[in-house]
Design brief:
By secondary structure, the protein is an all-alpha fold. It has one domain. It has 7 helices and no strands. The model has no long low-confidence stretch (mean pLDDT 91).
Length: 149
C-alpha cells in the first residue's frame, strides 16, 4: 500500500472534518471573531435561512456531528452523505452570491476524494434494483440453514 493510499483518506478526513466541526460549534458557542458582512446579493438568501428559524441550527448540528464523525473515523460514509448537500450549497453560495472559490473547491475535492476512498460503502446505492432486507426472523433462519449445510 502506498503512503498516499494509507494517509490520504486520514488527512482528508481531518482537513474536511475540522472546519465543519469548529464552524458548526461556533454557531452554538461563539468563540470565533465575527465574519464580515456578506455582499448585498447574498442578503436575501441569508435572510431567508435565518427567517426559517430552524434551518441554520439544524445545519449547524449536522455540521458538528458530521465533522466529529470524520475526525473520529466513525460513520464516515454517513457523515459524507450528510455533508454533501451542505457542501453543494456552500459551493453554490460562494460561486454565485459571494464570489470566493478556494474554500468550496477544497470542500468539493475532499468530499469527492473521500467518497471515492469509501466507494465500497456507497456501491449499494447505485444498484438499479434493490431488494428490501428480510425481516430479522427470516435472516436468522436462513443463516442457520446455511450454517447447517
Amino acid at each position: 500500500m502506498s503512503l498516499f493510499a494509507k494517509w490520504g483518506p486520514r488527512v482528508a478526513r481531518v482537513v474536511l472534518g475540522l472546519p465543519f466541526f469548529v464552524i458548526g460549534l461556533s454557531h452554538f458557542v461563539p468563540f470565533m471573531p465575527p465574519q464580515p458582512p456578506p455582499p448585498p446579493e447574498a442578503l436575501p438568501f441569508i435572510t431567508g435561512l435565518m427567517a426559517a428559524g430552524y434551518l441554520m441550527p439544524l445545519v449547524k448540528v449536522i455540521e458538528v456531528a458530521a465533522g466529529l464523525a470524520l475526525l473520529t473515523n466513525r460513520f464516515v460514509p454517513l457523515a459524507l452523505t450528510l455533508l454533501a448537500p451542505i457542501i453543494i450549497n456552500i459551493a453554490g453560495f460562494h460561486f454565485t452570491l459571494a464570489p470566493s472559490y478556494a474554500m468550496p473547491t477544497v470542500f468539493i475535492v475532499l468530499g469527492l476524494y473521500l467518497a471515492w476512498s469509501y466507494r465500497a460503502a456507497f456501491a449499494p446505492l447505485f444498484r438499479a434494483r434493490a431488494e428490501p432486507a428480510a425481516p430479522a426472523t427470516e435472516q436468522a433462519s436462513s443463516a442457520q440453514a446455511a450454517h447447517a449445510r
